[in-house]
C-alpha cells in the first residue's frame, strides 16, 4: 500500500470517528501536539477536541468528504479535502460545506497522526 493510500484510509477513519463520536479513535489519530484552526478562527488542541466529543458538546449528524488532494513529503503529508457537515455544537446547528487542510505525520510505529490543520467554510 502506498503512503498516499495509507493517509486516505486515515482520513476515512477520522471522518467516521467524528461521525460516531468515537473518542478512542480520535485519540489514536490525533497527535498530542495538535494545533488546529476551526472555521470560527479559534485554535484548538487535541484535548480540547476530545473533550468536545466526550462531553457531547459536538454531535455530528452527517459528514462526508470529497475531492481529497494528498501530497507526501517524507514522513509528513498534507491533505486538502471538502467536508459536508451537519452537526450541533453546544446545541447550536453547524453545517455546510467546508475546506479542510490537515497535516499528518508518520509516527515511530508507522501510523499517521494529525499534527495540525485548519478549516474554512466555503461560501
TrEMBL record:
Task: Enumerate the spans annotated as DUF4440 domain.
Answer: 10-114
* Gene3D superfamilies listed in its UniProt record: 3.10.450.50
- One of the Pfam families matching this protein, by short name: DUF4440
Q: Which SUPFAM superfamilies match?
A: NTF2-like
Task: Report the protein name in the record.
Answer: DUF4440 domain-containing protein
